[in-house]
Amino acid sequence: MEWDIVERELSKLKVISNGENELVTVKGDSNKFECVGVGTDAAVFRFLYLPHYAYKVFSNDKLGKLEQENEVYLKLGHSEYFPVYYGRGFNFLVIRFEEGITLYDCLLKGIHIPKQVIEDVDNAINYVLGRGLNPRDIHLKNILLHEGKAKLLDVSEYMKPGNDKRWEYLKEGYKEYYHLFDGRALPLWIIETVRKWYNQAKPESLNVQDFIKDLIVLFRMGSK
């Protein structure tokens, strides 16, 4: 399949941003692409004739994020903790499509998250630091579970300064409280409520223990 055909088909799809913490909207249609995920800056498509490739298409006002992510992938090089990076087009990046399920969907479906995932993410963070980058924005939707191991899917903020503490909260919650609901599906409203709490708060002002306790209260309310 010629790459100009891929680009021509991608041009039929338009990704539109909707605000800082809102998911993008996809407009247009192509029977050769399947949308496999959306974020706040881009949507990811799988080309049906070359299913091992994934195309991350950015909204036109987020092309600066594309440039940053392209630079991050080049600095990361090859690592077992990240998808293989193949290159870029005008408004898209090309990476290897990874089979698996996000930790977000694991919680929704009650799928067990093994301890190996936590170790893999910690190892990935150390690898990123060793490449002179700053691992940020590591959350449930950006961690993929595949055959008991983890891959990190979104590297777009690894050039930003500071620590958003997302992974610290997730890891602490896993260690201290995950056993209370391991194997039980969490209601969507609980997960989304916690996500909105976090987005509305400043990371430096959050207390891990209090934050997780509030989550447990919500879980118990939802279980009644």
Can you describe what's shown?
By secondary structure, this protein is α+β, with helices and mostly antiparallel strands. It has 2 domains: about 5-95, Phosphorylase Kinase, domain 1 (2-Layer Sandwich); about 100-224, Transferase(Phosphotransferase), domain 1. The protein is built from 7 helices and 10 strands. The strands form 3 sheets. The protein has a 5-stranded antiparallel beta sheet. A 3-stranded antiparallel beta sheet has the order 8-9-10. The chain has a two-stranded antiparallel ribbon with strand order 1-2. A hairpin with a 2-residue loop joins β9 and β10 (about 150). The N and C termini lie far apart (about 55 Å). The mean pLDDT is about 90. It comes from Desulfosporosinus lacus DSM 15449. This is Serine/threonine protein kinase.
Spatial strand sequence of the major β-sheet: 3-4-5-7-6
The fraction of residues assigned to DSSP E strands is 15-25%
Averaged pLDDT: 88
Percentage of residues in helical conformation: 25-40%
CATH architecture of the largest domain, by name, is: Orthogonal Bundle
**Element string (H = helix, E = strand):** HEEEEEHEEEHHEEHHH
Quaternary state of this entry equals single chain
Tally of contiguous helical segments: 7
Using only C-alpha atoms, the radius of gyration works out to 18 Å
Shape: globular
Distance between the termini: 54 Å
Unreliable segments of 5+ consecutive residues? none
* Topology-level CATH name of the largest domain: Transferase(Phosphotransferase), domain 1
Largest sheet: 5 strands, antiparallel
Annotation, overall tally of beta strands = 10
Task: Give the tally of structural domains.
Answer: 2
CATH class of the largest domain: Mainly Alpha
Pairing-aware structural class of the strands and helices?
Answer: alpha+beta
Protein name: Serine/threonine protein kinase
